[in-house]
Design goal:
Blueprint (H helix, E strand, L loop, with lengths): L6 H10 L5 H4 L10 H15 L4 H30 L1 H14 L15 H17 L4 H12 L5 H11 L1 H39 L1
Length: 204
């Protein structure tokens, strides 16, 4: 992916797009905080490689760019989901170490009857937050405690993945569908290329 593209480069790229198709490319599918230059850089790389001429070729460029961009977003979302699940994973291990009881999801608090249990739960949650906190003393204390039981960052990452297995499978399915679509498009591109080569050979 071309990461460095200037305003003039973007305008040059836009000028290449046929007027009747500019509507396809006018609003990149960006999430909040995403750099539009990255999208335009990707589009520029694909346009430069394929040199589209016909309407069909430009639509294929748009479809490929969109699928690649969506795959990028979905992979980032999957990674973010695992990272965000780290807090719950640490809490899970602390719960196992502290009580030996199975970990319960947060909605079990609805069934808690006494304040002592609620305070214990909040203390557990605070220790999990300390693991990721900025206070070095508290952070090291929790990490050392987990380390005594062989629980490292790898185990926490694995548990975070397990706890988010359903949404991760959903993301993986969405990514896989886009990958299949790109493979189909590559196969179609190859068929078109061979047909054009055959036509040119017949004209020579």
């Amino acid at each position: 992916m071309q990461e460095h593209i200037g305003k003039a480069d973007i305008e040059t790229l836009r000028a290449k797009i046929p007027d009747q198709l500019k509507g396809l490319f006018c609003e990149p599918p960006l999430l909040e905080g995403e750099d539009p230059k990255l999208y335009w850089g990707l589009l520029a790389a694909i346009v430069n490689e394929r040199e589209p001429q016909s309407t069909t070729e430009w639509i294929a460029v748009h479809d490929l760019t969109t699928k690649l961009w969506e795959e990028r977003s979905l992979r980032r979302a999957s990674a973010a989901l695992v990272r965000s699940g780290g807090l719950k994973a640490v809490e899970y291990f602390l719960s196992q170490i502290g009580t030996g009881e199975p970990f319960e999801e947060p909605d079990f608090l609805d069934e808690v009857r006494n304040r002592a249990a609620m305070r214990a739960r909040e203390k557990l949650a605070q220790r999990a937050r300390d693991y990721f906190g900025t206070e070095r003393k508290e952070r090291d204390l929790v990490r050392s405690h987990l380390g005594q039981y062989g629980i490292t960052a790898a185990e926490i990452h694995a548990k975070a993945t397990e706890l988010n297995s359903e949404p991760l499978r959903m993301f993986e399915g969405m990514i896989a569908r886009r990958e299949r679509d790109r493979r189909k498009q590559r196969n179609e591109d190859e068929r078109v290329r061979r047909r054009k080569d055959k036509q040119r050979s017949g004209q020579d």
